[in-house]
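Hi X.,

You mentioned you wanted examples for the new student's onboarding notes, showing what a folding record looks like when two proteins sit in one file. Here is a clean example. The first protein comes first, with its sequence line followed by its structure tokens.
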Amino acid sequence: MAVVEINFDGLIGPSHNYAGLSLGNLASAKNAGGTSQPRSAALQGIAKMRANIALGLTQGVFLPQSRPDRAWLASLGCAPETAPVELLANALSASSMWAANAATVSPAADTEDGTCHLTVANLVTMPHRSHEWQGTLAQLRLAFANPAFTVHGPIPAPFGDEGAANHMRLSAMHDAPGVEIFVYGVTGGPFPARQHIEASRSVARLHGVSRALFVQQSEEAIAAGAFHNDVVAVANERVLFAHELAFADKDSFYRDLRALLPQVEIVEVPTAAVSLSDAIQSYLFNAQLVTLPNGGMALVLPTEAQDNSRVWRWLSEMVAGDGPIRQLIPVDVRQSMANGGGPACLRLRVVCDPETVDPRFLVDDATLDRIEDIVATHWPETIEPGRLADPELWHQIGQARASLLMALDLGELA
């Protein structure tokens, strides 16, 4: 079997709006009440997927969920027409586009039973995300129905689990046995620590992971706006790329990691060169660190990192050196960034044989052409805050999603 890493990107949905629902997410709070551009947002995401394909990477997609979420509102005794505005905003959120929060993934090489395990994230910390898991689980069970996979339901509340955004994997190569890093929070100053250690330990047990480390995210990072670990660290194969202040006890973490994976290369960005504030504003670490077909590594990062002179200076000096990361690839995902999610937020990494995945969830340029046509035709061009209660908008959002499901022959998700 040809085992590769597949990046499954969440297609940005037609209800993409700036309601500012994510406490601790500085970009989300800053842009609350602004006018969003769902069509432009989705086209930017599609362009990122095309760029990955052009690099020679295997690309997948997850689809927007039904919005407004009428079932969730009904469980609260409401219909969209009668829901308080704050509940309606939560029911309309397009946040499932950030597929890094879809699930935690342990490749077959790491698990006791030799299957690739996925546990859907419960996302219980934030109301607008807490009702995503049912729709996400439905897609995971379709995409990964092959016996090569084991798909788990969510960890029960109150143990908050935010998926792959707080999980890293390091290995000599993608298909080699790895060390899985579960990053959890304890405190975060004025903001909640979203990943609970009890959830992380439960996922590791369910997956049968033999080599796991449980690492505390620093309170300083969370308080600065690093609501997920992937805002201050990212890993790929043998390389860990992290901010100096990402972890509560980095010395112990690095020592334990080197004991389990002696060939690990740690690329640490010092605070003296790039502050936490600059790292979080630019989403320097919320990048896709990928292995290219020629064997080198590239960092696919938001154009905001290029716009920040201090960040870009440090990155340019890094790639000019003799380190493992050899290429910088800026991508424009400004609409997602304005709501608090960069390139890494938009994707879930799954190491597997592509032949075992439902082909309807894998994309090439031709498939993306079809998706792009539907987005250009059906996605709202803008959504102003005052339109969230507009039934005509709800109808347009529903029709847009229905057209997409029909085009991709995924009517089971309707």
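Then the second protein repeats the pattern, sequence line and then tokens:
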Amino acid sequence: MTTRRTFTKLLAAIPVAGLLSTGALAQDMRDITFVQPSPSAINSFPVFVAIGEGFFADEGLNVTVEAINGSGAVIQALSAGQAQFGRPGPGPILAARSRGVEVVHIYNVAARSNFGIAVQEGSDIQDIEGLRGKVIGTGTADGAEVGFARNVMSGAGLTAGTDYEFLTVGDGGPATAAFLNNEIDAYSASTADTAILNQRGMAVRDITPAEFGRFFGNGIATMADTIANDRELVEAWSRAFAKGHAFALDDANREAVLKHLADGNPQEGEDKEFQSALFDAVRSKTISTSPENGLGWYPAEVWAEWQDALVTGGEIAAPLDDLSAAWTNEFAAIGNAAASE
């Protein structure tokens, strides 16, 4: 594996090149780039497992991973041709399509909501209504966590800018500092963000109503032009990714999986106990809500709910002309077939 470090926008990139398998010659390999909205290897664990196990190499793909700041930046990189695949959230996908950016979700990674609104353990705030007049921190200004929080708040009849405020504070240490300095009353966090806050000594608890668990989170995306003009690439990616996902779900492979994740992000691998616990938390969110359809499957009805929430929250002016064009299950089916062989 080769590793180099570059910088993009606000966050350092963490490129990881795929290993060559015995079945793939170097001259046959195609270089592609995958962009993720944070540096965490655990949040994108199927990618790093597929790299480490040689599943991408078996498909003739040499994958470089780069971390940039939030779903908006991921979509921008895809639309600019700087990457072939990325892992943005559904809210940013729909917002981008409302602006004419033809980005498409092809695999539902976070099949169960991997976001929640958290408050400090000792806070008097017990529910969403308790956030009226309060400030909610977010990691990025336009990431998936923002759309999720708007959705939850609008469900309680609360409107951003009127009943509460968002404040972009970053994640990890900056989020901890924002709590300590009383800049924020709550934080819209991913499963990984919450675990990191707790590990840093900032004990938090999730006050998100249980019914929002159906709102899936970040998934694999590519551009419609890539699907139309380079379908073999999308199919190859989907086969390798699904194999990595299935491999990581098998506890018999746990030791190998955690090693691949540490290779992808050495900092996450320094504390083995924390790495293991975080992986369990993130992995649990990727289990399909409809097992009969396999991994990576999108429920059409929840896409409609996501769209309704974005319209209500003012993030998009009106429903899309064709919501179904924003996502597809065909490549998840291809991936599942390959993973089951």
